[in-house]
Amino acid sequence: xxxxxxPKIKHADSTNFFLMAGPCAIEGxxxxxxxxxxxxxxxxxxxxxxIFKGSFKxxxxxxxxxxxxxxxxxxxxxxxxxxNTFDVPTVTDIHENSDAAMAAQYVDVLxxxxxxxxxxxxxxxxxxxxxxxxxxxxxxMSPESMKHAVNKITESGNQQVIxxxxxxxxxxxxxxxxxxxxxxxxxxxxxxxxxTHSLQxxxxxxxxxxxxxxxxxxxxRAGIAAGADGLFIETHFDPANAKSDGANMLDISLLxxxxxxxxxxxxxxxxx
Length: 272
Description:
- The chain has helices spanning 29-46, 72-86, 97-104, 120-127, 146-154, 181-186, 216-225, 255-271; strands spanning 18-22, 50-53, 90-93, 109-112, 132-136, 161-165, 168-169, 175-176, 191-194, 200-201, 210-211, 230-236, 250-251.
- It is α/β, with parallel strands linked by helices.
- The longest helix is centred in the first third of the chain and has 18 residues, at 29-46.
- The mean pLDDT is 94.
């Protein structure tokens, strides 16, 4: 897949990695626009191709009382407003076959959550929209097995596919990233490292996912050094009070310094 095929993508002719970043979930219009404005300024300064990320719905929560969204259409319209306001592409998760056509009216990239990476009907429904499809590798899948997920998209007539490493289950309550998987997955499609979800500590006894955000810098640097084409980073102005995945999010005040360092590592990797 060519990056410049994504509508509204900027700096696609740079040799930089691309970035998917934003809040875990769309909590409201003001927060989404505020985060997008901040990240757009940073990525324009550093010439990083940028896709705004925000889930319109969170269907895979541990507890029944967890936040799932502000309403499907309301959240999707906010994503559309972000795109129109800042002239950037957007990506959101889909969880059911019917979500694909609905979300495709508002966003540029459809994302398949890791838990659903083997759901054939969902992948086909996403592919048939003609949108770019980002498939997150299941925590239970090997890097090699992602070729079959990619084939489900391409055999449905859509060549615009990205795949994302987001860690593998390590015991019951931790994740681990095998960086050997990045070059393996790059044989099948452009490959992203999901930095923040790779640092999750799922299924805690409270039913609220924990995380290791202090390791975001290390994980991101390792991903770029391993040759990842892109990075996925969830970020928020107030992670401690985010309605979803706050425990592993990056405080947005730290984002520019991190991305500045990563662009320098990328320059070295590209020259090797």
